[in-house]
Amino acid sequence: MNQFNMDQIGRKISNLRREQNMTQMELADKLGISFQAVSNWERGNTMPDISKLPELAEIFHVTTDELLGEASGGLVRSAAKGEMEQYMEVNSVTVEEFVQVASLLSTVQAEAGFEKLTEQKTQLKLSDIEDILPFLGSDMVDELALKYMDSPEGDDLEDIARYASGPVLKQIAEKLLAEGKNIEDIARYLSTEDVDRAVLSYMETANWGYLEDIARYASGSVMEQAAEKLVAEGKNIEDIARFLSGECVNRLARSYIEAANWGHLEDIARFLSSDVLEEIADRLAGTGQYGKLEDFLRFLAPETVDRLARKAYEEKGLGTVEDFMKFLSQETRQEIARKEYGKNGLGTVEDFMKFLSQETRQEIARKEYGKNGLRNMEDIARFLDKEFLTGLAKETLEKEGIKGISPIARYLDQEMLIQFVREKYL
User: Fold this and answer.
1) Of 69, 149, 217, 307, which is the most exposed, with the fewest CB atoms less than 10 Å away?
2) How far apart are CA 250 and CA 341, in angstroms?
3) What is the reported pLDDT for 109?
4) Are 293 and 284 a contacting pair, CB within 8 Å?
5) CA–CA distance, 261 with 50 (Å, rounded to integer)
6) Is the separation of the CB atoms in 296 and 323 below 8 Å?
7) Could you give the CA distance from residue 181 to residue 12 in angstroms, rounded to a whole number?
8) ∠ CA 331-332-336 to the nearest 5 degrees?
9) Dihedral of the CA atoms 305, 311, 314, 317 (nearest 10)?
């Protein structure tokens, strides 16, 4: 049930003010508040504090009941008269009704009303009272936090944690840690020192899964300790790498390099410096492990990728360079393609034509045409410019006739072919 209608009360205040031939500023001066507050009341954006209602009623020469109107429930009217506790002695109030009124009450009134509410509702859950917490004093919130800490809801204290004091939060954290539970929900409200203690506790119990959840609230030095322990045990620091300094991640990465733990290095590659990435690449290339390099190529400088691709090609051949192709400069692609065509002909180059510039494609195609005509060009024709293909086709028609262009016929301009045949043979 709605306890009050802010729009109706706002209109009531506006009407009564005008009846008194009073401006918003004049009313604000009488109440010792800003005229913006009065404006917000009259627009239904906010409600006057309960303590202001009797004063407003006196200024307008009405009762608080008249001011609040019929739409307001008994709880609001009794609170305005300072009789809320008496009202709650004889009337049952729902949590929802009390929440609607709480924002209008002073802290003392809210606490008194809340105590009456808990007498009526003895089995209130934390989720029932979370909207009331902002209006209670810190001592009462602390009492509630300690109470719910020992309840079945003790693992879900985030809503009350934001209002609890530091000492009580520390007590809650210690209890959760002793039970091997995650303090993620309250970590943001703890001091750095308390979060650091949690990190050290998780390290001792090897409860690594919780580290990522609280890492952002811990100090850098403690997170480095945790990372060093993970690396020493051969574990992955990917989940906490973003909370570590660049110097720390680079230093720990070198430990992974020495242990040849390439999988973990791939996971943290985006956090590594170019120097360390190049060190990884050179180590892999130096041991001929070009296949593993693929995972790091997108993080390497373009000139490094080009250098490694040339090395891979010279040592292992074109097949090894396949993973490099999309990361290579056009210059290096062309260099490798030309060398490969010179060594092995068109067959091995065709899979890489899509990575080459049109100029390089045509250069290779022209060389192939000079050696073998169009016989071997069916598989690369789709990568060639139609105008270029047409030129080759015309040359072939002159030399070999219509049969000579059959390997690339489907890629040619059909109207052009028909016209050419008419001119040549008809």
Assistant:
1) 69
2) 41
3) 87
4) yes
5) 67
6) no
7) 53
8) 120
9) -50
| Weakly modelled stretches of the chain, pLDDT under 50 | 1-3
* 217-276 per-position pLDDT tens digit: 999 999 999 999 999 999 999 999 999 999 999 999 999 999 999 999 999 999 999 999
CA pair distance 113, 53, nearest whole angstrom: 18
Q: What is the token pair recorded at 365?
A: 């195609």
pLDDT of residue 106: 84
Greatest alpha-carbon span in the chain: 114
Q: Which residues contact 306 (CB under 8 A, 6 or more apart)?
A: 328, 329, 331, 332
The DSSP result for 51-109, as a single string, is GGHHHHHHHHTS-HHHHH-TTS-HHHHHHHTT-HHHHHHHS---HHHHHHHHTTS-HHH
Helical axes 358-372 vs 386-400, angle rounded to 10°: 10
DSSP state of 372: H
Encoded tokens for 423: 């001119």
Count of CB atoms situated within 10 Å of the CB of 342: 11
pLDDT at 1: 40
- Burial (0-12, 13-18, 19+ Cβ within 10 Å), 160: buried
- Write out the two tokens for 416: 């052009």
Q: What are phi and psi of 108, to 5 degrees?
A: -65, -45
Task: Please state the φ and ψ torsions of residue 337, each to the nearest 5 degrees.
Answer: -65, -45
Backbone region of residue 94 per phi and psi (left: phi > 0; alpha: psi in -120 to 50; beta: other values): beta
> Given this model, what pLDDT does residue 223 score?
97
- Per-residue pLDDT at 2: 45
User: What is the predicted pLDDT for the residue at 63?
Assistant: 83
Residue with tokens 């090894």: 320
Is residue 63 left, alpha or beta, with left meaning phi > 0 and alpha meaning psi from -120 to 50? beta
